Amino acid sequence: MPVSRAAETAEFSPSQLLPDLPLVMWMVLIAIGLGLAGGLGASELVTAFNAGFGRALGEFALILLPSFALAAALSQQCITSDAAARTTLFASPVAGAGMICPDTAYAALSPAAGRHKLALALGAYSGFKLLYPAGPLIVAAGLGSAVLDGTEPAQLLAFGLLLVPPVWGVGCLWLRAALGSSPQAPSAGESNADKRRIVILFSPFILMASLLTLGALLGETGIAALDFILLPKGALLCAALLALAQIPRDNRRTCLDASVRRTGSLLLLIGAASAFGAVLNTVLPLGNLMPEGSGILTLLALFVLTVGFKLAQGSSMATFAAVAPVAAPIVAASGADPLAAVFAICLGSFIAILPNDSYYWLVRGDALEAEKSELKVTGVLAGATVAQATLGLAILLAYSALVS
């Protein structure tokens, strides 16, 4: 039977003209195309690509390997007491940051959250985006020396702690306006075993915070091993080792293999993004797009750039990995405050929890399982994160105006 022209038009999509390639391959191909179109010779192109690809891989390997091992180990320690709901709720930002993954933090804590599951989901999301050593450390490492030399871990931690309460709070207000009050979940009571499980779950975070605090107080001791574990990357490694020690021995190799797999794929993405940024900046110096001293404009540009990356491919971690190397030359040349630049990217990545984000389906299938309308679920989750990003950006711009 012949197909009508209207049917042919309806079935056609412009995306069909493009090959279906992973983001990594798109970045590599576009980087090569840009270099050739920009007049680079073959050897110049390869040199720029190589320099960009390996620029920050060591930094990220030391962050991601222990982070994913920590997340994998903690995901096996399930807390099932509804009586622990408030504890898990208020600890959710710390869990999101410490596990370097909102998905893992939500999966580990949601069984105990009762009627607070959606608020917990936004708490874990906010902590992952804004609290050290998650989003701020990952972004700072991707931006490179222009930021790492201008900020201290304590500054990143302190500013994130100031941002989380209002940003998390406005998201919860959106949930309340969109859904109203949630029904009270039945309480199963709280036993001593429940309390012990909560303490065990968060002991790696307590250890990491203690080491970082001690490092800030002592400074360099001259003892290499001690100085390393008092650094953020060393403290993160110690936290991961403690978490692995708390699970059955037979399960540890599984956690480590998962960590290697997740780290390997992200390192490839980070390398491709760094190479793309290096070639792009060689052909078209991005720093020239922002005049020196244009702090507010630079922050807005970084925010919008990150929003574009997040909407395009969904994953928060991949957004951090991909956007920071591209943004690095802009930050370096503009003279923007390094601390503000880091959080402009972190806040841009809030927008939004959509169906192309794995976190959407995790929360939708658990906290919003009873909701039949996909449009309403999208409005609830995307609306909450847009409200969070908007308030956070307003606070950031006010801070930047005050310090400039």
Explain this structure.
There is one protein chain. The chain has 404 residues and is mainly α. The protein has 19 helices and no strands. α5 (85-98) runs antiparallel to α6 and α10 packs antiparallel against α19. The chain is globular and about 65 Å long. The model is unreliable at 3-14 and 182-189 (pLDDT under 50).
SSE topology sketch:
Blueprint: H1 5-11, H2 23-37, H3 42-53, H4 57-74, H5 85-98, H6 102-109, H7 117-130, H8 135-143, H9 145-148, H10 153-179, H11 192-218, H12 224-229, H13 232-245, H14 249-283, H15 295-313, H16 316-334, H17 338-348, H18 358-364, H19 374-403
Helix pairs in contact: 2-14, 3-14, 4-13, 4-14, 5-6, 5-7, 5-11, 6-7, 6-18, 7-10, 8-16, 8-17, 10-19, 11-13, 14-16, 15-16, 15-17, 15-19, 16-17, 17-19
What is the succession of H and E elements?
HHHHHHHHHHHHHHHHHHH
- The count of strands amounts to 0
Distance between the termini: 69 Å
Mind describing the biggest β-sheet?
none
Mean pLDDT: 80
Key phrases:
single chain, 404 residues, disordered N terminus, mainly alpha
What's this entry about, in short?
The protein is built from 19 helices and no strands. By secondary structure, it is mainly α. Helix 5 runs antiparallel to helix 6 (102-109), helix 5 (85-98) runs parallel beside helix 11 (192-218) and helix 10 (153-179) packs antiparallel against helix 19.
